[in-house]
């Protein structure tokens, strides 16, 4: 039996694929390559190039492979851009989920692990986010992820779907030198690209109510994240009790200044970040508890901030070699 990884040629999806392989579990990848890379798919892994908006393709994929469950990573993931492209965001993330669930139901596939997002919380008024923290998404992206969770809940009632959703904040690092974050919007690629171009990275605001004045966020290593996707899939397949949602959080977080200092130390490129004005809506601190996922999904922070930066930098350098 195999698991289908949607978006399996992307940064997070490719790490999920490798984690399944390391556990001896067969995988199939579907990806439209809008942000993924064929080179991220390992040799020997069946690769279907196409969109989850193509329901006929999904049904054929289920018919042609012995798929027992889905890890749904595919989607439009840029919160800021989603404000300018709401219809595109909903089509990719909501319509895509509907078509995927329809294809699963028609094909008799009952297990799904959903790559959700901490964007469902918006800007919470608490120092430590738990699964019970009120949901208040503040972008079409966050709204689309919350709707995805609702669809899973409703399909459980209607058709007996077995599911869980994993919410997380900032995914960084690399589990392999040939896999890297190529997003034009994420902090690590932006900082590395600036340094390589001889430019100075920016910090947006250094007067927040935090220990060093810069925003504190959850940063988690992509390889740790991938392992919990496998643990969730195993739990679903075994019919073991599972929560509908889990936060994959660090419990303490790191500041943007700490990241900049670590990048300078790890890369050997000495720089003093430029301080720019605050960005509207940026909260001082957002950190999530991973206690529930630690109980059920083997979740823990196996990598330090140095590990995260070092692995990400090595994969960035390997891409330029």
Automatic annotation (TrEMBL):
Its cofactor is NAD(+). It is an enzyme of class 5 (isomerase). It catalyses: UDP-alpha-D-glucose = UDP-alpha-D-galactose. Keywords: Carbohydrate metabolism, Isomerase, NAD. It holds the Pfam family Epimerase. Coiled coil: none annotated. Pathway: Carbohydrate metabolism; galactose metabolism. It comes from the Bacteria. One of its GO terms (molecular function) is UDP-glucose 4-epimerase activity. This is UDP-glucose 4-epimerase. It comes from Cryobacterium tepidiphilum. The gene is galE.
């Amino acid at each position: 039996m195999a698991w289908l990884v949607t978006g399996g040629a992307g940064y997070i999806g490719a790490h999920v694929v490798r984690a399944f392989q390391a556990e001896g579990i067969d995988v199939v990848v579907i990806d439209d390559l809008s942000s993924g890379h064929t080179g991220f798919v390992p040799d020997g892994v069946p690769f279907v190039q196409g969109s989850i908006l193509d329901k006929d393709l999904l049904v054929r994929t289920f018919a042609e492979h012995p798929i027992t469950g889905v890890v749904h990573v595919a989607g439009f993931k840029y919160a800021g851009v989603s404000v300018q492209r709401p219809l595109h965001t909903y089509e990719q993330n909501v319509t895509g989920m509907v078509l995927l669930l329809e294809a699963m139901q028609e094909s008799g596939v009952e297990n799904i692990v959903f790559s959700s997002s901490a964007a469902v919380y918006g800007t919470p008024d608490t120092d430590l986010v738990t699964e019970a923290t009120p949901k208040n998404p503040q972008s079409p992206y966050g709204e689309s992820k919350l709707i995805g969770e609702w669809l899973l809940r409703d399909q459980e009632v209607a058709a007996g779907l077995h599911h869980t959703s994993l919410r997380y904040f900032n995914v960084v690092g690399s589990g392999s030198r040939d896999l890297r974050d190529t997003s034009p919007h994420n902090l690590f690629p932006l900082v590395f690209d600036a340094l390589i171009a001889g430019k100075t990275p920016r910090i947006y605001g250094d007067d927040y109510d935090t220990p060093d004045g810069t925003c504190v966020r959850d940063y988690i290593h992509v390889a740790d994240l991938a392992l919990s996707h496998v643990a969730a899939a195993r739990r679903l397949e075994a019919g073991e009790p599972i929560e509908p949602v889990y936060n994959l959080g660090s419990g303490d977080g790191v500041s943007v200044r700490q990241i900049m200092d670590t990048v300078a130390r790890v890369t050997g490129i000495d720089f003093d970040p430029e301080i720019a004005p605050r960005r509207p809506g940026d909260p001082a601190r957002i950190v999530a508890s991973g206690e529930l996922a630690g109980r059920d999904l083997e979740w823990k922070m196996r990598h330090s901030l140095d590990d995260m930066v070092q692995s990400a930098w090595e994969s960035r350098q390997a891409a330029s070699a």
